Input
Amino acid sequence: MTSIDQSAFPIERGLARAELGLVAPLPFIGVDFWTAYELSWLDARGKPQVAIAEFTVPADSPSLVESKSLKLYLNGYAQTRMESDRALHERITRDLSRAAEADVAVTLLPVADALPLGELDGDCIDDLALEIDDYGPPNPDHLRVHEDGADEALVSHLFKSNCPVTGQPDWASVQVRYRGARIDRAGLLRYLVSYRGHQGFHEQCVERIFCDVAARCLPQELSVYARYTRRGGIDINPFRGTPGAPLPPSTRGARQ
Output
């Protein structure tokens, strides 16, 4: 029997949130969208099956799951016979929900039903002519606002952080959507680039960005959404927003 208790490693969210001074109630709502492209198992006759799996983990779950260990867990099904697709769905839902200590939504998609391509909407700030020499640690001093107001989304594809477990780079496109005093675009880009040497899980990076922008720019509404490129056949896409912020559409970027 495949069991998440044998291979996956839950990580307590509270440890990183304590570093940011976050206490209940959290200042944001959100979810982590996971997409697993390498799920395979055997049907009752031993014939291999494949699917794309989507996991939606609530941001208020006590724990997240380290991605490498989740890959090992999913790979454990490659030679596992399942009575039906429903049985597989139920087992994965049970195991991931147990690890996250919350209800994790699981969807199994046929390969032909992969998420459609769709880039983050908003103004891309990557072409700004800047000199940058700050690559970490994350530096919120770069964040500043102008006197006029704005209701806009700003996007950068230059984001990079590093996995605290493996040290490998994590690449992402980041969208900052807000309403309030106009955020200085050059400062925002410098701030995002300052994560380049930072070690942090995807979810923790997005929460740090949300908290820094909220504290320094004081927007009336704010959401931060990152779509990370896949590693080990899995991409992780955290979303955090002020209460009432709508969830983003289910799409994947060209790099995913």
Remarks:
- The helical segments are 4-7, 13-19, 67-75, 85-100, 185-193, 202-217.
